[in-house]
Amino acid sequence: MKFEYVNFGKEAVFQDPYVTKVADTLIPYADGKKGSIGLMGLPLSKTSISYSQSADAPQKIRSHLKSFTTYSVELDIDFSNRMILDFGDCQTHPTDSTESINRLYKSVTDMLETNSCERYVILGGDHGISYPSIRAFSEKHGTIGVIQWDAHHDVRSFEASGRTNGTPFRSLIEGDHIKGRNIVQLGIRDFANSKKYSDYTKSKGIRMHTMGTIEKEGVSSILMRELLRLEKEVDFIYLSLDMDVVDQAYSPGCPAIGPGGMTSRELLASIEIASSHPKVKAIDIVEVDPSRDVRDLTSKLAAYALVKFMYSI
Ligand code: CA
What is the pTM of this model? Predict the structure, then answer.
């Protein structure tokens, strides 16, 4: 029997025939399929040094893709033909972090081996996932540059806790996967880091830009200058977006929230500028804990940043 106003097993959602949502362009990966953007979730937050349920973020951020349309009113372009191949989420180990990090590395490597997409999106997880992810990209694509939006350096020593969400960039430098001078940090916040790690950052040649510098110079002009420098040095640029770079007023769902960060507009404008560069081929978005969020402010901003990345020209 047919019911006129009921879809069996599905929620009732209003569908406007003249509107395409980003979620409508998401298709599961299968052998031989090609797409514009490959998407994979790395739901690991057991490597976080503070309480974090950011393992729930990949599904939460995906769910917001139904909140955004594929049409850019700013560009007057409809991006509904940019298909997103969804590789799903990597299954982590319940107790063994080292094994989990290996699985993340293997899964990103496998995704890149498919050669199915022009660009890739990785959804964390805590910031620890950037180590296996960037390592996989650097082994596949050659000399890599990273632009890191972050309140923190993330170059902690391994002595106290091994590999955590505080160590990804130290792991990459010490594993010789990237040169310090090819890492650009945007939004480092005052009284949120230590002298020892700031000194380490400088000694490795990492290009550090604090919130103070951003206030004086503007994040866009800093970024454009760094992109012009990086494009001569590297084959490929990876964006690593730690949502705690954004002020706590706009991203209350990060484990390490704080005042004095970027506004949501500064973040989105800078993601848009970076994503327009032809050498930028991937982004990871990390440190969103949906269990601590307020009305999904943080996960929705993360999804918006993701849309800006995917629909850049
Ligand atoms: Ca971080």
Answer: 0.96
**What is the rounded CA–CA span in Å between residue 276 and residue 272?**
6
- Rounded distance from Cα 155 to ligand 1 centre (Å): 9
DSSP codes, 146-214: EEEE-SS-----STTTSS-TT-HHHHHHHTTSS-GGGEEEEEEPTTSS-HHHHHHHHHTT-EEEEHHHH
Residues in the 5 Å CB sphere of ion ligand 1: 127, 150, 152, 154, 242
149 pLDDT above the threshold of 90: yes
Q: Ligand 1 centroid to 296 CA: how many Å?
A: 20
Express each pLDDT in 4-61 by its tens digit. 999 899 889 888 999 999 999 999 999 999 999 999 999 999 999 999 999 999 999 9
The CATH number linked to 163 is 3.40.800.10
Angle at 180 between CA 168 and CA 144, to 5 degrees: 80
257, with CB counted inside 10 A (0-12, 13-18, 19+), is buried
Report CA(252)–ligand 1 centroid distance (Å).
15
Q: Judging by beta carbons within 10 Å of its beta carbon (0-12, 13-18, 19+), is residue 99 exposed, middle or buried?
A: exposed
Counting the structural domains of the chain, the total is 1
* Ligand 1 centroid distance, CA of 112 (Å): 24
Question: Is 8 within the bounds of a domain?
Answer: no
Residue 281 lies in a domain: yes
Going from the Cα of 134 to the center of ligand 1, the distance in angstroms, rounded, reads 14
* Residues 139-153, mean pLDDT to the nearest whole number: 96
CA of 235 to the centre of ligand 1 (A): 24
Q: Which domain holds residue 251?
A: 22-310
State the DSSP H helix or E strand holding residue 293, giving kind and residue range, or none if neither: none
Task: With respect to residue 13, please indicate whether it lies within any of the assigned structural domains.
Answer: no
DSSP annotation of 242 reads: E
Residue 240 domain-assigned (yes or no): yes
